[in-house]
Amino acid sequence: MTDTGSDITRLKRADHKEPLLVVEDLRTHFEVEAGMVKAVDGVSLSLDRGKTLGVVGESGSGKTVLARSIMRLNIADNVKTSGSVHYDGEELIGKSSKEMQKLWGVEMAMVFQDPMTSLNPVVKVGRQLTEHLRYHLGVSKSESRETAIELLRSVQIPEPESRIDNYPHEMSGGMRQRACIAIALACGPKMLFADEPTTALDVTVQHQILNLLAQQQTDRFMTMIMVTHDLGVVAGRTDEIVVMYAGKVVEKAPTNQLFADMRHPYTQALLWSIPKVSQPKHTRLSAIAGRPPDLINPPSGCSFSPRCPYAQDRCHEEDPPLTAAGAAGHQYACWYPVGSPENEAAYQSNLANGVPQTLAAAGRLAATEELVTEGAAG
Questions:
Q1: Residue 4 has pLDDT above 60, yes or no
Q2: This prediction's pTM
Q3: Under 8 Å CB-to-CB from 368, ≥6 apart: which residues?
Q4: Predicted confidence band at 46 (pLDDT cuts at 50, 70, 90)?
Q5: CA-CA distance, 70 to 150, in Å (whole number)?
Q6: Sign of the C-alpha dihedral, residues 320, 321, 326, 329?
Q7: What is the extent of the structural domain holding 340?
Q8: Average pLDDT, whole number, for the chain?
Q9: pLDDT at position 16, please?
Q10: Which residues of 76-189 form beta strands (DSSP E)?
C-alpha cells in the first residue's frame, strides 16, 4: 500500500532552512468589459515549512484569488498575473498548465470552499480519490483503492469501505468536505491551501473539520495556508496572519502578536464583528460601515478610508505603505494606527465632527467596554 504517513517526509523536510514559499509583489488583474479588476495588487509574503498562515478579509478582499494565483489556477485569457512566486526554490509565474500539473496534488493541493461544486456529482468518491493516486504515483487499481480507503479513514469518515462507492449526494456536507480533504491529501502534498473550508457547515462540524486539518497538518508536517473571513477561525490555529483589503496586505504579524497589539483599523473592525458568547440574546451584530471598494476604480489614498472611523484628510490623499511595528514580523499600512496617540486624536476629532462611521465605532466600543465591565464584576 502507498505510504500516506509522514515520518520519512518529516525528516527530509526538517533539513531545509529556507522558506518553502516566497511571494513578491504578486499582482493578479482581471480584464473585464468595465475595466481592469485589481483583485490582487502587490502582495508579498513568505512562509516557512511546516507553518500555517491565515489569510483573512471580507468577501472581495482578494484572499481566494491570492491562493489561486499562487497555485497558478487563474489562467484564463483575461487574467494578467505578474510578480514572483518562488515555491521550494522554483519560480511558478510563467509556468503553463501542463507544467503545473506535475506540481498539483503532489507538491501543492487545495481544499475548495464548496464541496458540492469541487466534487464531480456523477462520479463516485472512490474514483475521484484513486485517479490522483494512479496518475501521480503510478500505483495499481487495487492498491489505489486500498490507499483511498485508508485516506477516508484518516479523515474520520465512518465505514470507509462502503463510503468509497458513494456518490457525493449520498454524503452529508461534513462528509463531503472530509472527502475533499482526503482527495487533497492523497499524494502527500508539501503545501495545502484551505479556502474557506467550513463556510457551508454547521458550527459543530466546522470545529471537527478545523481540528482535522490541524491534525493532518501536524502529522504530515505540511505547510498550510488557511483562507477565511473570520479572525476567530485562525486565532488558535495559525502561526502568522495576513489581513487583506482591496487586494492588498494591510497588516501581517505572528498570530499572538496580532491579537495582542493589532494596529490597523480594518483588523480591529473584523475583530469587533465577531459575535461574542458573552453578549445577551438578540444583540444586534456589529457590521463594518459602508461597502468594500470598487476594485476597478478604487478610492484615492487608503482604500479603507471611506469606512474608517479614524480617517483624516491624509488618508484620502496618500496610500500608506507597510510599516514595521515594534515586534519582529509585525507590519501595518496605516497613517493613524490603532493604539497610537495620533489614532486617539483622530478619533476624538471625528467624534466631535459627527463622522457617521466614527459614531458607529463609538457604539461598538461602548458595548465592548460594557461587556468587559460586566464580566469583571461577575
A1: no
A2: 0.87
A3: 272
A4: very high
A5: 30
A6: positive
A7: 259-276+285-377
A8: 87
A9: 63
A10: 79-87, 90-91, 108-111
